[in-house]
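Task 17 of the worksheet. Students: predict the tertiary structure of the chain below and write it out as structure tokens. Keep your answer in the requested format; marks are given for formatting as well as content.
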Amino acid sequence: MTETLPERLKRIAEVHKALKEEIGKVIVGQEEVIDQVLIAILSRGHCLLLGVPGLAKTLLVHCLGDVLDLKFNRVQFTPDLMPSDITGTEILDEESGSSRRSLRFVQGPVFTNLLLADEINRTPPKTQAALLEAMQENVVTTGGKTFALPQPFFVLATQNPIEQEGTYPLPEAQLDRFMFLIRMNYPQRHEELQILRQTTANREVKLHSLIGGAALIELQKCVRDIPVSDHVLSYCIDLVRMTRPNEPDAPDFIRSNLNFGAGPRAGQYLVLAAKAWAALEGRLNVCCADVRRNAHSVLTHRIACNFHAASEGIDTTQIIDRLLKHVPEPDSAGI
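Model answer:
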């Protein structure tokens, strides 16, 4: 018998709880980060993890690969990395005992389910751009041929915010391909105590695979089946449009502090993130609070502060905080 949508959502909530418990065997704290990564995965989105060294960014992605039973590859981005080192390359094959030769495409590490792009800002733009088509279209084109990537496919990239020497900032077009920019903060004192206790002793933890690729795709379809009211859709539109300095109704603090605002993809991701969070809680209804919960992760890397904001010590986090207070929920009668 086919499951109803509420039954499927209940199953997602159960999977969510089990995944967090399993990942918690290795990752101490960072519950909000884990939730956001799971939201992105259920939404078929990619994540950029931003944090100083030693906060378990790479370890978290490894754990996700284990508990989700997905094929996992890691690429360490360096200044000498070439695009073909990511997407793959064609090699010349010669048949034994014959003069016949043919080109054969050897797949690169991008042909996986979960790709860890470690320190993505340490490689030049031409290599960073090798991921653009894969992230947006889920294909790789080389030698005039197009190769489909395995499904599901996610890119989880990491970036160190404190080192700028020898790095290449991601272009805006590529930043926009990431659904979330997730900031990882230092652990609490009691969490750090537990980290020291666990990592300085003879302790081996084997994580169990809880869900495979095919089941994950079904959960992604379930998220998109969740209905969203015009009330919530209008709220998402208002939030995104109010980030644009040239918008007639944009508030003064947006006009004076931003060079440009978020594009339509931000609205799409706000809706999907709200749906996915409702699903993780087993709820059929999506509300404006679900949108606000993920607004910072969606909007932070899609707006750019100008010189005036920098001179006043204003950053994107402060602007989004003010925006959330400024933009009211739509009046149902006026939708």
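Marker's comment: The first strand starts at residue 47 and ends at 50. The domain at 226-334 is CATH 1.10.8.80 (Helicase, Ruva Protein; domain 3).
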